[in-house]
Amino acid sequence: xxxxxxxxxxxxxxxxxxxxxxxxNYVNALEYGLxxxxxxxxxxxxxxxLHERLMKDVRGESLTPGEFRRAQNFIGPxxxxxxxxxxxxxxxxxMKDALDRFEKYLHESRRVLPPLVRLSLIHYxxxxxxxxxxxxxxxxxxxxxxxxxxxxxxxxxxxxxxAYFERNRKEYYRLLLDISQxxxxxxxxxxxxxxxxxxxxxxxxxxxxxxxxxxxYREKLQARKAPGRALELMENLFREPVITxxxxxxxxxxxxxxxxxxxxRLVQAGILKEVTGRxxxxxxxxxxxxxxxxxxxxxxxxxxxxx
Length: 307
Description:
Layout: H1 2-8, H2 18-36, H3 44-54, H4 92-107, H5 115-129, H6 136-150, H7 162-167, H8 169-182, H9 185-223, H10 228-236, E1 242-243, H11 245-252, H12 256-268, E2 273-274, E3 284-285, H13 287-294
Antiparallel strand pairs: 1-3, 2-3
Helix pairs in contact: 2-3, 2-6, 3-6, 4-5, 5-6, 5-9, 8-9, 9-10, 9-13, 10-12, 11-12
C-alpha cells in the first residue's frame, strides 16, 4: 500500500511495480464500474469493460483483454497439461451457453434467496465458467463489490473479500472445486458468509480507528493554533497518506513556500514523517494512517503519536 500511495503521489522515480499496476487497475476498474452502473446494470458487457481496464499494462495484457476466450483453458500447477489439470472449465460452446444463463440469473428476481447466499452462488458460477484467458479471479472479486453496491447492500465499496480469500487461499480453492466435483454447496456458503462477516467487522474497526485518528490529529493541530490550511492538508492525508511538497502545493492551491510551511507543521505535530533523508524531492508519509490500512487485520489499538 505504501508503494501504491507513493506512486499515486508521484513520489517514486522508478515506475510502479507489477503489483502496484494491478492494484491501481483494480481501483480504476472499481471506480469505473460504480459510475457505469448508473447507465448499465451488472452484465456481460460490463464485465468485459472491467476486464479490459484490469488487464492494462499488467500480466495477461496480451491475452485478449476485454474479450471472452475463444479456446479451451484449464487450471493446474505450472507446466501441467490439459489431461493433468486440476480443473477444466466448460469448452467455448458450453461456456457461451453458461454465460447466457449466468447473465439471466443476474437479472432475475432477488427475493428468492437471501442476498449473500445468492451472491455466493454468483461468485462460484463465474469462477467455474472462467470466461477469460487471464484475470478471472480479479474480475470475480470485483464483481462481488459491484453487486453489493448495485443491490443496495453497501452504500460505498467498503467491503473487500479479497483479503479473506487470500488468508484462506487453499480452503477457498478447495471449496470451489468441491462444488464442481461433489455438489457440496453448504461448506462453500458457510465459508462465504463467514468471510463477509469477518471482513465487515474488520472494515468497521478500521473505519473507527481512522475516524478516531482524524479527531485526535484535529485536536492536536487546534491546540497548536495551526491555520486552516494545515487542517485541510491533514484531512487530505486520509485520502493520500503519502505526499510531497509539490503535491501539497497543488492540493492547497498555495505557493511552494506556504505548502512547505504547512507540511512542516504536520511533521512537528508527529502526523507526517520524512522518509527519504534527502534535501530535495522529499517524501512525507502519514505512517499511523498507513499502519491502520496496511495491517493484515485491523489492529485493536493504534499508537497515535510518537513519544
